[in-house]
From TrEMBL:
Annotated metabolic or biological route of this protein: Amino-acid biosynthesis; L-methionine biosynthesis via salvage pathway; S-methyl-5-thio-alpha-D-ribose 1-phosphate from S-methyl-5'-thioadenosine (hydrolase route): step 1/2
Name of the protein: adenosylhomocysteine nucleosidase
NCBIfam families with a match to the protein in the record: MTA_SAH-Nsdase, PRK05584.1
GO cellular component, one term: cytosol
Domain Nucleoside phosphorylase: 8-250
GO MF, one annotated term: adenosylhomocysteine nucleosidase activity
Alphabetically ordered keywords of this record: Amino-acid biosynthesis, Hydrolase, Methionine biosynthesis
Organism: Caballeronia telluris
Pfam families: PNP_UDP_1
Taxon lineage: Bacteria, Pseudomonadati, Pseudomonadota, Betaproteobacteria, Burkholderiales
Biological process per Gene Ontology, one example term: nucleoside catabolic process
EC numbers for this chain: 3.2.2.9
Length: 254
């Protein structure tokens, strides 16, 4: 995508993952909230960018229906997803940030009719994000870690957080065992992180020709400690990361 969009869609699964976005929108000006399909869509302006922000809730169906509504009901011309994920690659640690350049549904398997992971009749397993939006998210994430890294290290037990860019995989499963992580690494050695929505958003955006981007902070390493690590990270830090990244990203687009 080049140039500015008139209306940017911003999605997360859970309230903590949107950080202060809706409060920032209310502080800036009027926010219209519209309820549709049991979700609230907040239309207004944040950090100089006209946007519609919403919570999809968890899972691929939730993400796909919400993305479709953002495009068709609210005129979103690009969509950004922000939230947490489990680290899959050995180099990816709690507190790191992963920006997707491609996304894939790790639980999609219509073999032998179609190759494993391929979306039937779409001839595609991996869905690319917008290089421009993703580059801006990488820059915003790096600036956030540069400026907030010391505070994050002091207040929370994250050590030397880093920004990664690459494959994020999505499925309707919370991954919480080392064996499951090893299985993912074996079939998808380039997978950096796992979550439950991003690839569904990317498929919808591909089908409608709408640019998208996904940024995830690593809340756990998808092993037996994942449920506790996820819950603690979500309550304690996820909002600070999302607010820090989104505010810098939006200002770079305004
Ligand atoms: N989101 C955050 N952590 C996750 C995990 N371990 N599995 C799936 N989605 C996640």
């Amino acid at each position: 995508m080049t140039g500015r969009v008139e209306m940017l869609g911003i999605m997360a699964a859970l309230p903590q993952e949107l950080g202060d976005l809706i409060a920032d929108m209310r502080a800036t000006g009027e926010v219209e909230t519209i309820t549709l399909g049991q979700r609230e869509y907040h239309v207004g302006e944040a950090h100089g960018v006209r946007c519609v922000a919403t919570l999809a809730r968890i899972g691929k169906v939730a993400a796909a229906t919400t993305a479709t509504a953002l495009i068709h009901e609210f005129g979103a011309e690009a969509i950004v997803f922000t939230g947490v994920a489990g680290g899959v690659h050995a180099d990816v640690q709690v507190g790191d940030i992963v920006v997707a350049d491609t996304l894939l549904q790790h639980d999609l398997d219509a073999s032998p009719l179609f190759p494993r992971f391929e979306v039937p009749l779409l001839d595609k397993a991996r869905f690319e994000t917008s290089p421009e939006l993703s580059a801006l998210l990488v820059a915003a994430s790096e600036a956030f870690l540069e400026q907030a890294g010391d505070t994050l290290r002091e207040r929370f037990t994250v050590s030397r957080p880093r920004v990664h860019r690459g494959l994020i995989v999505s499925g309707d499963r919370f991954i919480a065992s080392h064996d499951a992580v090893l299985a993912l690494r074996e079939v998808l050695p380039d997978a950096l992180a796992v979550e439950m929505e991003g690839a569904a958003l990317a498929q919808v955006c591909y089908e409608y020709g709408v640019p998208c981007a996904v940024v995830r902070t690593i809340s756990d390493t998808a092993d037996a400690a994942a449920p506790a690590s996820f819950a603690e990270f979500l309550m304690a830090i996820a909002g600070a990361y999302s607010s820090g990244i989104l505010s810098r990203f939006l200002r770079s687009r305004s």
